[in-house]
Amino acid sequence: MLYPLKFKPVFKDKIWGGRKISTSLGLDFSPLPNCGEAWALSGVAGSQTIIANGFLEGNELNEILEIYMDELVGERVYGMYPEEFPILVKFIDANDWLSIQVHPDDALAARRDIGSGKTEMWYILDADPGAELITGFNRTTNAATYLEFLEEKRLKELLNFEKVKKGDAFFIPSGRVHALGPGILLAEIQQTSDTTYRIYDWDRVDGEGKSRELHTGLALDAIDFSPVHSYRTEYRSIRNKPVTLVDCPFFMTNMLDFDRATEKDYSSLDSFVIYVCVEGKAELRTGEDSVSLSAGEVILLPATVAGITLLPEPAIKILEVYIP
What we know:
By secondary structure, the protein is mainly beta. It folds into 2 domains: 5-220, Sandwich (Jelly Rolls); 243-322, Jelly Rolls, CATH 2.60.120.10. The protein has helices at 20-23, 61-68, 70-73, 75-80, 106-111, 143-151, 216-220; strands at 5-8, 10-12, 37-41, 50-51, 87-94, 100-102, 120-127, 132-137, 159-163, 169-172, 178-180, 184-191, 197-200, 243-247, 252-258, 262-265, 273-286, 289-294, 298-301, 307-322. Strands 1, 4, 14, 15, 16, 17, 18, 19 and 20 form a 9-stranded antiparallel beta sheet that branches. The longest helix is centred in the middle third of the chain and has 9 residues, at 143-151. It is globular and about 65 Å long. The mean pLDDT is 96.
């Protein structure tokens, strides 16, 4: 019988990484000196997370997908994603500007034989005063203008900068140019893909004086130049009631902000459910099984888990994720 699954994160050393994944989330990424990303739930080849609790402890995520199939992810979801778990969850600590980048959509990824595209969302866990990020363009533009500004190292003049604070959310569909700025700690939910086209890296070099590879040509076909009226996800958190942050074909994300015992019924969902704890603590009960959940932890509820009882201690905020 499957049960709520915890995983050991995979930590990623990044040139722009910091210490907040340890100091704010309590995740031990030693022996890395700094850490840019903690992959909390991953089926990406070479970076799969390993189960940390119960009789399946020590198994990789895609191994149990191969064994349990629709029992793990749901019959409908297994028909869509039979070989690889479809959602990747990360915690990201930006101690410096990340590269300006873009991700391909499914169609372009298929043409290039690189797996799936990459649509994602960000939830800001913490932000220093004045912290900002880039998402999309600040005006109507086109490929020719974009390349002109890129060549002249004036690209940021075309880009939309957003000031951020704790609790902000942003939807980043494939094709949208974006970058994180320093002082931001966030949770990222995305399609399972590790394809990033790096557009500009702030003329940065590593300890050996080497710059990171840019993907100007590959990125050009991926970029959506359409302007957007508002890039920020507008929502109002309501205590003890689910609030939708993102509803797209690749994942649904709801905010659960609870301070009382709550029953959640997933019997008709036909999908796994992921809980990403962004604040507080709770106990989760499913029949005879009980598991704790606290900030910085992720739990995967298999599709066979028909429901859970959520017992906040005394309050908790969770990103609830599943395939719609």
